[in-house]
Amino acid sequence: MSKLNVAILGSGNIGTDLLFKTLHSPLLTCAYFIGRNLASPGIMRASSMGIRVSDRSVEAILQEPDCCDLIFDATSARDHRYHWSLLEPLGKRVIDLTPAKVGTLCIPAINMRECLACANVNMVSCGGQTSIPLAYVLGQIHPVIDYIEVVSSIASRSAGLATRINLDEYIETTEDGLRHFSGCRHVKAILNLNPAEPCINMQTTISAKIASPRLGELTAAVQAMVNTIQSYVPGYELIVPPLIDMQRVVMMVRVRGRGDYLPAYAGNLDIINCAAIAMAEAYARESMADLTTAERMSDVHATNPH
Amino acid sequence: MPPILISDSTLRDGNHAVAHQLTAPQIAQYARCADAARVPIVEVGHGNGLGASSLQVGESALTDHEQLRIAREQLSHVKLGVHIIPGFATINKDLAPALALGVDVVRVASHCTEADITQRHIDYTRSQGKEVYGVLMMSHMAPREILVEQALKMESYGAEGVVIMDSAGAYLPVDVAERISALVAALRIPIGFHAHNNLGMSIANSLTAVEHGATIIDGSARGFGAGAGNAQLEVLVAVLMRMGYATGIDHYKLLEAADLAERELIPSLPTISSLSIVSGLAGVFSGFTKHVVRIAQTYQVDPRDVFFELGRRKVVAGQEDIIIEVADTLAKQRKDPA
Predict the structure, then answer these.
(1) Can you give the residue range of the structural domain that contains B165?
(2) Which pLDDT value is given to residue A300?
(3) pTM surpassing 0.90?
(4) CB contact under 8 A, B324 and A195
(5) Residue B111 contacts by C-beta under 8 Å, 6 or more apart in sequence?
(6) Is residue A262 part of a domain?
(7) What's the domain count of chain A?
(8) Most B CBs within 10 Å: which of A150, A164, A199, A203, as the mutation test of the B interface?
(9) How many H helices and E strands in chain B?
(10) What is the pLDDT of residues A48-81, one digit of tens each?
(11) B242-260 pLDDT, tens per residue?
């Protein structure tokens, strides 16, 4: 069975962890690992594993558009907007891990099918991948929600310089995603960095103000959603099931990473990459299904002399 | 002796003591008195600063906008200040509107090891021509070398001073002395100190800071602030006067402001409760107290155990949601002592 060829744009922590996850995938092959500096740790690592590398950023793909079917963009929001202006005319599918929000907001547990039809999908944010599915469940069960608040605490070591500089964008992107998928207009996202050693796992609390919460129904639906997420994020765990505290619904999850390239405590980075891989694998399955259909069609033509 | 710049946290840290429920008349009355007393900076807002009104740390009775507008109307001789923590507040949603309302001084705060998240907020404030300070919260959790490294980052971003906060009231004077000395030696900009009184050290620690070169000190009327409260402002200024430090404050008027605060703002005067002592010993943020008391009662666990467990986990300010999980865990352990 042939695999889907992917290129990874961006050789930082996210890009390198994506490379490891791609290598573990039965449906994906990393055809090209692209950064800006051949001496960067990510590029050196990829190169040592026999992966084809380039330091020419998006130019590498423009020069050889057939090198891949799908591109992960793990650079920055500003770079992504530029990359997309060049990649869109080539008809490439792009999974965007930056907060650029050019494409359709993508949470695999919620809208994978819708995203299959989109050339550019945006993976929202790490906190978004963690909390939005649960906010979505809240919105599915309660027609009216007054307010949703999401607080994530992550290990300081898991927040690189780009995350730190882009904290405002993280908050705004996560809030946009929460509003979009829950239908609740009044939302707030908060992020804490905790430097404790040993490093803490990512932990996220979702609170909501709901006039008449349906706790029994919610608990079952939350558990079902957690099971779905666990199918692509094994370290996703509900540590406090929905409860009522001070007339508000509260639940808490912890995300432990798979420890592919990044350490296991960096569940915040792991989850957005797991979600991106889940989406890429869905594309891969779809394009293989198309291929199979096309092959069957050509078989029909081959055996039919008319 | 250098003059000491006093920043008054009554209308900001004091908000912690009343679950962020300060009212419009309270803010107006105190701001008017502080203006009359010429307290150089009057901080106003939610206890955790701009954009912090939330289920996580408590919802304010008034919006940031309302609080700042009310205070602004009363302040004509002194500066209006805000506290802001990146991660809670953003430039677009919170800081830019606050500056548009006439805020003069912005104190951009982070946990003591995370100064790089303050870069954009400091930079933005400078670009708008306003006065900006860096604040390192929970500073007892980092050794002096780390504090110096973090404070130097804030200096490089354009901060005009760096204030370290003893957010848990955990310091003894010897701790303050070594940290302030190191900071004063390493930085070119003024250094400040913000005390909490959990171990009864707030005035002593503030004086120690001044004696080791700090030139910015925070205080609150009657100590009105989170947990056991802050350095009691009118005492602090009196002691500084006795020692010959200039603050530019009219002490008679300051005493009147403190009397008004006691009468109009403070439902019960700050005291070092048993739980405040535990919070100081555990090194947990003073602002957690009200949440810990409530949640410990719900889960029928000892609030002291909750504090010590939070301390063991090294939680930072803003992680109030962990209290529920800790109380839940302690309750389960009690049921199932395996």
Answers:
(1) 5-265
(2) 45
(3) yes
(4) no
(5) A192, A193, A194, A195, B136, B137, B138, B141, B316, B317, B318
(6) no
(7) 2
(8) A164
(9) 14, 8
(10) 999 999 999 999 999 999 999 999 999 988 899 9
(11) 999 999 999 999 999 999 9
